[in-house]
Amino acid sequence: MNRAPFGISELDSLMEGGIPRGGLIIVAGNAGVGKTILSAQFIYNGATIYDERGLYICMSEGGEHFKADMASLGWDFSRLEEKGMIRIVEFPTMAKVGTEDVVSLIVDEAQKFKAERIVVDSVSALNIALSRKSEVRAVVNLLARMLKNLGCTTLMVTENPWGSRGIGVGVEEFVSDGIIIMESVVVGNRLDKRLMILKMRATNHDTRYYRLHVDKGS
Fold it and tell me: How many CA atoms lie within 13 A of 192 on its CB side?
């Protein structure tokens, strides 16, 4: 199967070289565990290593704030924007927005930019914009199908509240091709972070937990 690597050798080796190209992968975890960093690296390495255009949809924070955070890790998203390899789209939180509007806005951006990699960070923000959980589930379901039809390789970030056994709004795991779980766990008197590949379509993937560590880029 054709793969879209993260460009992180240790992670890619756990899933036969990367995630299935054209698939939709859920990155789920607690707040502050590193979901945005992992997703940003997928887009950044896609542009710098694999020459693939990346679209980053910011639904939880402003685009400038996101770029400043990534710059502190050594990743210059502004330069890649200027080169036309990455596009960052900031979605303002709206009091009233329809299901079709959310999906069409994201799909239109993906088509116009001819994106090969997409990150939606995070679908949990839709809980604020949409009034009913059924609407959120409808958006996630429809968006997943539309992005797959475009052939984009997509990461959808979703929050897992502390103590929750479910994933996001309860539909992501059923529409996705893969699920990467990131967790914060108490070990002795410190807080550790760990990652596990819960599901990955057509992939003989590792199913063990691995400790997470973030290094600054150069």
Answer: 11
